[in-house]
Specification:
- There is one protein chain.
- The chain folds into two domains: about 180 residues, no CATH class; about 150 residues, no CATH class.
- It is built from twelve helices and ten strands.
- Strands 3, 4, 5, 6, 7, 8, 9 and 10 form an eight-stranded mixed sheet that branches. The protein has a two-stranded antiparallel sheet with strand order 1-2.
- Helix 6 packs across helix 8.
- The radius of gyration is 22 Å and the shape is elongated.
Amino acid sequence: MTKSHGRKKRARNTSRNRGAAYAAANAGTLHQHDSGPSNTDLQPTNPSGWGVETTPDMRTASALIGACIERCALCQQALAAKLLDEEPIVLAVTAGSVYTLHAATEPDAGSLASAPSQRFFRLVQQARAHGGDGRMMLTGVEMMNRADRSALLEDALDLWTFYGHKHPRLMRGHDTGPQDAPHFTFTSPDSDHVEADPATVLDLSGLAHPAEYGVRADMTLTEVGRVASLGLYPHPETPEAGYDDLRERLAWEPYIPEGLPEENPAWVLKVDSTSGALLGIVRLLDATLLPDRAPREWRPDAYDVILWTAPEQKPVSAAWLETARQTGSTLLYGPLDPTGATRPDPSRLLAVHAHCDFTDRL
């Protein structure tokens, strides 16, 4: 299990530059993030098994996991700092629960995990071997300094981003004893469940991006000639959509007039191979989980974000399709004025050069 250092660096820089995270936390004005498990989902059913007498308050952990799943940098830093100020049991349960799931199928904490996380993972393995005794995990956290706790939390949140998509049953009960990994299923709106490999979490109904966009197909003149492109415009009823969303949540880069950025294989435009209709825009999950592997090794149908889904299948022009097929890619850019009344300002546009996948489904 690996992590995207680039994504984390961008998130940290955003929080530092805006300087709003701590103020928002103190003022109680953080966003609502409920994509992850709830407070009660995270709470151990047997607190004494973790060395405490009362059930820990996991509300901060619940909100933080949701903020990570939804890629909200504004809330992540404030909530992480708040969690580190709480009792050690909160971090022990937050990290211990997800690392217990990880330990069911993986032999170690991951090649990029920090030293504190590597040590904590060994405690998780010992707990599993001794009937699920969470007290040793709590003791391990209590012995850490703040820097080590911060490193452990960061690594645990990486795992939660992978394992925690819309699975309220994922950690219910926190049985840390030796057992098989939970069996998950692929789900999507209006579809039957399809069995997935153990420890694979892909709930497509929970991956829709919180900001909604519309798209328009066009051709853009670049330094290499005309390329197939899609302009994105914010849906009028979703104020989250726009420049800040594309820049901070999705890490799109500034648009360069007549320029064509290097293709980013993490972003994919799905096109129906038979009708030529656009199906949707997605970001591949393995680009975050396995950034060191070649993109050809990433799973083409495992996503962590579905940015846009076509409300109905309408084919684009033959010229657009021919260009997209020849290059195998398309330029995504935005945000545009949804009314078309305002000419776009290039300095307020962002872009990503996405791969085109001609397929039979999203």
